[in-house]
Amino acid sequence: MSEKNAVIAITDRIQAEAQAWADEQIAAAKAEAEAILADYQAKADQAYESILAEAKVKAAFIADRAVSQAEVDRRKMLLAARQECVAKAFDKALEMLCNMSVQERVQLMVKSAIQYQTADAEFIFNAADRKEVGPLVVDTVNSIFKKQQLKETFSGDFLEQVKKLLSGNRARALTAKLSDQVGDFAGGFILKQGDIEFNCTFEVLVAGVRENLEGETSAILFS
């Protein structure tokens, strides 16, 4: 073999070995890259699943809180509605008391007066009642205390009720007087005995009944 051919053969061999080595390195790099990619893909999938699971837990927690808050709000609204209805019921009761007939209001006020009056007293009414029922209440109370004949004429059941009051109460040396003072309340009266006042207004009467019957009234309204 000539010297030239020998050089060519050696060069071709070197090139072939270099190409084989390069191909081997490229294949190894490609395999390593694919392995790294697969590892990162697995880690990415794992992170995704973890984040997704955590998000689901948080979403469920938020949903539960939302449902719980909605239930709390619903109960608050229901309670407020019930309280409003109960309040309206007692407002209506106060209105009905104020709209009773003269004889009915006088009878109710007289019963309160003889229960609380223990000394000479003044009766304070609102402006309308002072004219309409005030004098009749005061005269009736004085008649009962002094066992005198009534100045005003009652009729029907009311007459019988007043007669019972007359017969059921002993004579007392007490005097009832119509006050010049005018009160700012819906109905009833304030009994003033010196420095002591007894609030016998219809507002206080309804408030006292409400305290005892509010629960029962609510049960009736919402049963």
Question: Which features characterize this protein?
Answer:
hypothetical protein PF0899 fold, 12% strand, 223 residues, four-stranded mixed sheet, 6 helices, alpha+beta, 4 strands, 2 domains
Descriptive notes:
Strands 2-1-3-4 form a 4-stranded mixed beta sheet. Strand 3 and strand 4 form a beta hairpin. The N and C termini lie far apart (120 Å). With 223 residues, the chain is an alpha+beta fold. The mean pLDDT is 76. 73% of the residues lie in helices and 12% in strands. The protein contains 6 helices and 4 strands; from the N terminus they run H-H-E-H-H-H-E-E-E-H. It has 2 domains: 99 residues; 121 residues, 2-Layer Sandwich (hypothetical protein PF0899 fold), CATH 3.30.2320.
Shape: rod-shaped
List segments where confidence is low: pLDDT < 50 over at least 5 consecutive residues.
none
Going across the major beta sheet, what is the strand order?
Answer: 2-1-3-4
Order of helix and strand elements from N to C terminus: HHEHHHEEEH
Number of DSSP helical runs: 6
Overall residue-averaged pLDDT value? 76
Set out the fold topology.
Elements: H1 3-98, H2 102-116, E1 121-126, H3 127-132, H4 134-146, H5 156-168, E2 176-183, E3 188-193, E4 196-201, H6 202-221
Parallel strand pairs: 1-2
Antiparallel strand pairs: 1-3, 3-4
Helix pairs in contact: 1-6, 2-4, 2-5, 4-5
Give a brief outline of the structure.
With 223 residues, the protein is α+β, with helices and mostly antiparallel strands. It has helices at residues 3-98, 102-116, 127-132, 134-146, 156-168, 202-221; strands spanning 121-126, 176-183, 188-193, 196-201.
